[in-house]
Write a structure and sequence with these properties.
The chain has 360 residues and is α/β, with parallel strands linked by helices. It contains 16 helices and eight strands. The protein is 56% helix and 12% strand. Strand 5, helix 9 and strand 6 form a beta-alpha-beta unit. Helix 4 runs parallel beside helix 16, helix 5 packs across helix 16 and helix 11 crosses helix 15.
Length: 360
């Protein structure tokens, strides 16, 4: 039995953190579903920027849409929705079989809206309506301005992937926004079954402190933050308040491990996969990490529910001069800026291709 199947049977969903038109057309995604127990997919501006900029797979569509007078964000979202509808259809049987627990794909609102509550909410509603797929998450960052939009989107019945979470406090705030949205739906007599995941980014922690801590602490911070957050997650979903919404028919907002590709060339290529094996969670991983995992058999120990060990690890980082709370806020802000940079590169690439192709 492959490690991917073992993780699936453990109760952890494996999602692919990638999408390209070639991946959809050449059967690779279908193979990952059948052979590697992949049950969902995530995307972000960086992934789409690379997919469009590093291939000719989108050229015909860009040429045609450019000739129709489409450009910028409008053109991009048409391309992205075409890909994600295709992916959503591949995962739809899983979504139906699991009653909406699994089988999701994700599309992000414009990163330029990260600090615009009203704009984020309007974009989330519009994109979900345009997608015409029940198993599409709209990704909204868990920024201060994003949290009210998350609550309102959930109340409106829009499934949400809360992205750019880096700390236990940021996760707890996202979970509270989801919970308020669901409780309001119950009070209003609406169906409380609205899908959601909360995405905690892992590897960026270790990249940020790589040259600031002793060798003995390398590649431990992201896992420690995840372990601490997992304890909070399990405590929340077992609490009376959450049990009440479950009894009313709501689903669980699952904790998702994001950014789980190993960045340190000296570390294991499945470092974060082994460390974060845990039921009731999702691990979304790059294609290279997924293929590396498929070559393994052992998945090691599961992530403990109680985080005493990780509290000690975090205390060691504090002794090394790392302010974890401040760094979490910094990483969220840097993550938002990084997606804006990718977004601008993406739109510039589409514009350049559009002008060239329109003339051909």
């Amino acid at each position: 039995m492959t490690a991917t199947k073992k993780l699936h049977d453990l109760g952890q969903s494996l999602w692919l953190d990638n999408i390209t038109r070639d991946l959809l057309s050449n059967g690779a995604l279908g193979r990952y579903i059948q052979e590697f127990s992949v049950t969902g997919l995530t995307s972000n501006p960086t992934i789409f920027e690379r997919a469009i900029n590093n291939s000719h797979d989108y050229d015909d569509a860009i040429r045609q849409k450019s000739k129709e007078g489409k450009s910028g964000e409008a053109l991009f979202f048409e391309l992205a929705l075409e890909d994600l509808r295709h992916a959503a259809d591949l995962f739809r049987p899983i979504h139906d079989e699991t009653n909406g627990v699994d089988g999701w794909v994700s599309l992000e609102v414009s990163p330029l809206l990260a600090h615009d509550t009203a704009g984020t909410l309007a974009a989330a509603k519009e994109l979900y309506t345009r997608a015409e797929r029940p198993n599409l998450f709209i990704k909204i960052p868990g920024t201060q301005e994003g949290l009210p939009a998350i609550e309102e989107a959930i109340f409106a019945g829009v499934p949400i992937n809360v992205t750019l979470l880096f700390s236990r406090a940021q996760y707890a705030a996202a979970a509270e926004a989801y919970l308020r949205g669901i409780e309001r739906r119950i009070t209003a007599g609406l169906n409380p079954k609205v899908g959601s995941v909360a995405s905690l980014f892992i590897s960026r922690w270790d990249v940020a402190v790589k040259d600031k801590v002793p060798q003995a602490l390398r590649n431990q911070l992201g896992i420690a933050v995840a372990g601490q957050t997992y304890e909070t997650y399990r405590s929340l979903i077992e609490s009376p308040r959450w049990q009440r919404i479950f009894n009313a028919g709501a689903g669980r907002q699952r904790l998702l491990w994001a950014s789980t590709g190993t960045k340190d060339p000296e570390a294991s290529d499945i470092l974060y996969i082994h460390a974060l094996a845990a039921p009731f969670t999702v691990n979304t991983m790059p294609e290279a990490t997924l293929n590396a995992l498929a070559d393994h058999v052992d998945i090691g120990q599961t992530l403990p529910v109680h985080a005493r060990y990780y509290d000690e690890v975090l205390a060691n980082f504090a002794k090394a001069g790392i302010d974890v709370d401040a760094l979490g806020a910094q990483l969220q802000e840097e993550g938002a800026k990084s997606f804006v940079t990718s977004w601008k590169k993406l739109l510039a690439s589409i514009a350049s291709k559009g002008e060239t192709l329109k003339a051909s």
